[in-house]
Give the backbone structure.
Amino acid sequence: LKKIIDTTKQKNLFFLSHNGPKGLGSARTSMYGADFKKEGGDFGDEDLSFAIQYAKEIGKKVPAVLSGHMHHGIPSLQKERESLLYKEGTFYINGAKVPRIKGNQHFHTKIEWNGSSVTAIPTWLEL
């Protein structure tokens, strides 16, 4: 990942990954918390965490990290996990809503980038 980051000419890097990074909490309701373990735990991707940190260390900006894997709903707790989090200049967005389709409504997360900041708008669309 460092080699890929080193070859980028852009100042702003967006990461798109299956699972989000480690370091965003270890509670069962954390964005990438291990809800399937009674004691919880951080189920984030360590390689992705290192890549984000490395990019920032060499002067890149990471406006957003877009990922999923950990479903919003936690049936065993009858709660939803965090799905949006802003930390240290980066907006972390988990788009893994399950079920994503309810009748004629479909869940989507609209991402807006204006050149300096990111906005995430989770929404149900009527189709």
Observations:
- The chain has two helices and nine strands.
- The chain has a mean pLDDT of 93.
- The CA atoms of residues 13 and 101 lie 31 Å apart.
- Helices lie at 2-7, 46-57.
